[in-house]
Amino acid sequence: MTGEEILQQFESAITITEWDKEAERLLKKPRGIICCDTETTGLLFHTPSYFKDEERWCQNPFPFGLSLCFEHEDRLVLVWGRYGSKLYDECKRILSLPNIKIWHNMKYDLRVCKTNGIEVRGPQHDTLTMSRIVWDRRKDHRLQALSEFICPEISAWEEELNEIKKREKSKWTRTVKKENIWLPEGMEAKDFWNYSFLPHEVIGTYSMCDVFVDFIIYQKIAHEISSEFRDLYVRERKIVEVVTKIEETGLRWDIERAKEEIAVLEPKMDKALETFTKLGKESQEDFTTHPPKVIKALKYLGVKENQLKDGGRITTEEDILHRCLKEGVPKKAEQFIKALMDYRAYAKILNTYMKPLTLQAERNDGIVYTTINPTDTRTGRPASRDPNLLNIPKPTVKKKEESNPVRACFIPREGCAIYYFDVSQQEMAVFALMADDYSILDAYKEGKDIHQYMADQIGWGDKRDIVKNINFGVLYGTGIKHMAKTWRMTLTEAKETMRIYMQTFGSVKTFQEKCKWELQRNGYVEDFFGRRYHVPVNQAYKAVNSLVQGGCAQAFKMGLLQVDKYVEKHNVGKLLLPIYDECQLETPKLSKADESQLCRNVIKCMSDIPQLVNRGLKLRIDVEKTETSWACKEKIEI
């Protein structure tokens, strides 16, 4: 279907925004698939949002509007129902019918419906998951972004909405401040406004555009999903269901411990700020923490411009500042950089984690929640936000003896323990399997440290860390210049190091060439699980990363599904965070015998991945446990 045909279909669609006899006739018994969307007061669960229509606060996103799209004879029907109207009630009724329902971000919309008592029946499908499988190289899978390349003629609807939204939000933010409108603790004036403030006709048009685009996306890729990616899609959809349960479970947060940590960290942050501000003001009276001012201060204190360059740009990002310290800078510049990095680390921990999570825990009986995207990246690895609990930073870049204050506040529920099942050296094991390097595979099967084994094979027994860096540099497609900077070598030394590595492990080069050949032949590479990665041939080095990280992500998801099935069947506990290659399971405290049985069963679920076992690889799983806090987990032997 061409863009012009899509536009004609949109313009000829029957729009229903008011209840009348025509609406009653068309909505009585819709046939076929139904694309659905909710318009809500917010995006975060367990977080207050204001419902304008009834002038009340909601603890979770409230669906103040519902939109639908379905076929009727040779035309589409677009429906918008706002809360309190007959059409809204009809939309709810239609959601309860057995028709196939299509959503874009099914996890969110179905959770909104569940939380607000809206029954949804029939098979459910998710075009967001489909899009990420079929159009894997796209960065942005929002409906508006997808409409730009599917049908640019109708993609301007969000731009128009954004202009209205900007004006309305600004107006209400000023009103909140001027009239001193009450806000829940931790919320600012800008948080008051949401889509329920938009006029009926504006939000209705926007929402109907959403479901129309969703319908077109489904038409375009549903057949390809069914014929080429059915097993992969079914697995990803099941993962969405598991992740939804994990989100709803949440994690227990030690409020008192968090407040103690905040009291310790705030003075440290203030001291770091005072230190580098004092040094910064030697270069400029109006010094602030903004990057241009920081760069000017660094230059004044003796840091060379080349030391601050990343490619062609000058930056004060953390890895560049680390590099400056390694290369050597004047004493005052060193003090400035260390204080700056400390300040940033403390500020991030306090403002991203400690304070928001403590506030959220106080609202929710000591439980905190995050939002998990099970297939966020191009390789299909998960991500989380609000906040990101998959990459919790260390408290500071230099004081390794300090425990992690964020992890120290995550504690088991009363009478429970948490088990952490970690896949050991998964990326290297999967890489060895894909590259047919049986010597590395055998070392893995024997329980050896792969990086040390490879260092010994080269004759660099005391250079494990360098070999580890090369291994991950190869996996991530890192260039030789970047590796030279990481190793603090000259470019000549780095090239020689890489030559010896490649000479010893010829399978690496062979695998890289194989990936390039497959890209030239097919336009993509495909992992053991049926997921394809479309990489430009001139960026073939990225294919190795896609296959290995993507394969690991798929293997972990397979394991997670098997663990979830076991946990549900035996009612032994609840899954917590899925962290890349680590599965967290909270259970009531167990006897030694029951603990051993539980761990053996979970290990079996995570290690026995058919697509790997059938090729001779059984993953190694390490187990840790805590009855106190995440920071205090300890390894246990099974």
Automatic annotation (TrEMBL):
Residues 403-591 form the DNA-directed DNA polymerase family A palm domain. Keywords: DNA replication, DNA-binding, DNA-directed DNA polymerase, Nucleotidyltransferase, Transferase. GO terms for biological process: DNA-templated DNA replication; double-strand break repair. GO terms for molecular function: DNA binding; DNA-directed DNA polymerase activity. PROSITE patterns: DNA_POLYMERASE_A. It catalyses: DNA(n) + a 2'-deoxyribonucleoside 5'-triphosphate = DNA(n+1) + diphosphate. InterPro entries: DNA-dir_DNA_pol_A_CS (IPR019760), DNA-dir_DNA_pol_A_palm_dom (IPR001098), DNA/RNA_pol_sf (IPR043502), DNA_polymerase_A (IPR002298), RNaseH-like_sf (IPR012337), RNaseH_sf (IPR036397). Its EC number is 2.7.7.7. It is an enzyme of class 2 (transferase). PANTHER family: DNA POLYMERASE I, DNA POLYMERASE NU. Belongs to the DNA polymerase type-A family. This is DNA-directed DNA polymerase.
